[in-house]
Amino acid sequence: MLVNMKEMLEKARIGQYAVGFFDTVNVEMARAVIEEAEELNAPVIVGTAEILLPKMELNRVAEFLIPMAQQVNVPVAVHYDHGLTFDRCMEALKLGYTSIMYDCSTASYGDNLNNVAEMVKICHAMGVTVEGELGHVGDNEGKGRLAKPEDYYTDPKTALDFVEKTGVDCLAVAVGNAHGDYKFPPKLDFDRISEISQLTGVPLVLHGGSGLSDLDFREAARRGICKVNIFTDIDRAGKIGIENGLSAGARFISDLIAYEINAMKAVVREKITLFGSVGKA
Predict the structure, then answer these.
(1) Which helix (H) or strand (E) holds 8?
(2) Is 81 a catalytic residue?
(3) How far apart are the C-alpha atoms of 205 and 56, rounded to whole Å?
(4) How far is CA 273 from CA 15, 18, 20, 265, in A?
(5) What is the pLDDT of residues 25-41, one digit of tens each?
(6) Is the Cβ–Cβ distance between 149 and 162 less than 8 Å?
(7) How far is it, in rounded angstroms, from Cα 166 to Cα 50?
(8) Which residues, other chains included, contact 11 with Cβ-Cβ below 8 Å and sequence gap of 6+?
(9) SS3 state at 50
């Protein structure tokens, strides 16, 4: 069933587990995530991020994700992640996305707060949830890499002010996490997660989940992380599935679909189980 994120993340916060958000830029990815969530009777969040739009445009993603979400018996939120511009967020809203992340984390604090507060007013009027980001989650490589990530960690007291003044439904935090492949094992600031969670009372979001250890995920969920973003792990799994199909003698693209989906399903199953959301639909 197509829902927004509010109820599923509130239940996760109370139950001390997390719901997986999986970027899904083609039908095979969407099938792997949604079919596996239904098999596990787990809530799930699917969607795409603005940085991924060159791979598949917003309207094309909406065309397959929203009907798929409507047709299953588990809660599925369709989320526009890391929306960087107001116009693109409005486009996602009009297309039927049920959740919007308006990422103004690189702007000044005042601009971030005011922009997100405006987005919350618009989205809440339409029954759509909003995710904000405070601090800044950088990349593990490339131009988004931060020289000193700790300078951008989320401050707990500022987080409380931000949540109270914007009305966001959930908050992405910077606590030692980063997007993409980790070159070295990350060290998450669990005490910071706990303090932010206790002060704000809202579900927290961990971006850059691919590559973290099982213990990291479990402890993060226990401390207040209720949504974990995954892309790199399932993207890589799909590629490996295709390679396995080719090695097995598959001759046509249609023959590779099952290999691709099954490989991604294995990762989705692993993550949903690890996050503790099996049977929580």
Answers:
(1) helix 6-15
(2) yes
(3) 24
(4) 14, 10, 10, 12
(5) 999 999 999 999 999 99
(6) no
(7) 22
(8) 43, 280
(9) helix
Structure tokens at 279: 């049977």
Residue 225's SS3 state is strand
- Of 87, 106, 131, the closest CA to residue 227 belongs to 131
CA–CA gap between residue 198 and residue 181 (Å, rounded): 30
Residues in the chain: 281
Domain 2-275: what homologous superfamily?
A: Aldolase class I (3.20.20.70)
Q: In terms of DSSP H, where are the helices of 99-252?
A: 109-124, 156-166, 190-200, 214-223, 232-247
Which residues fall within 8 angstroms of residue 161, CB to CB, at 6 or more apart?
113
Where are the chain's structural domains? 2-275
The pair of structure tokens assigned to 57 is 């445009």
Is the whole-model pTM more than 0.70?
A: yes
Measured between alpha carbons, how far apart are the two ends of the chain, in Å? 10
Q: Which of 23, 81, 189, 233 is catalytic?
A: 81
Residue 230 parent element (H or E)? strand 225-230
- pLDDT, tens digit, 9 for 90 and up, residues 120-155: 999 999 999 999 999 866 543 444 444 445 666 899
Residue type, 61: V
Q: What pLDDT is attached to residue 177?
A: 61
Q: What percent of the chain has pLDDT over 90?
A: 81
Average pLDDT of every residue of the chain: 91
178 in Cβ contact with 149 (< 8 Å): yes
The rounded distance, in Å, linking the Cα atoms of 169 and 12 is 13
Measured distance CA(125)–CA(131) in Å, rounded: 15
**How buried is 138 (Cβ within 10 angstroms: 0-12 exposed, 13-18 middle, 19+ buried)?**
buried
Q: What is the pLDDT of residue 24?
A: 95
Nearest by Cα to 174 from 143, 218, 202, 137: 137
- Write the DSSP assignment of 137-161 as a string of letters: --BSSGGGB-SSGGGGPPPHHHHHH
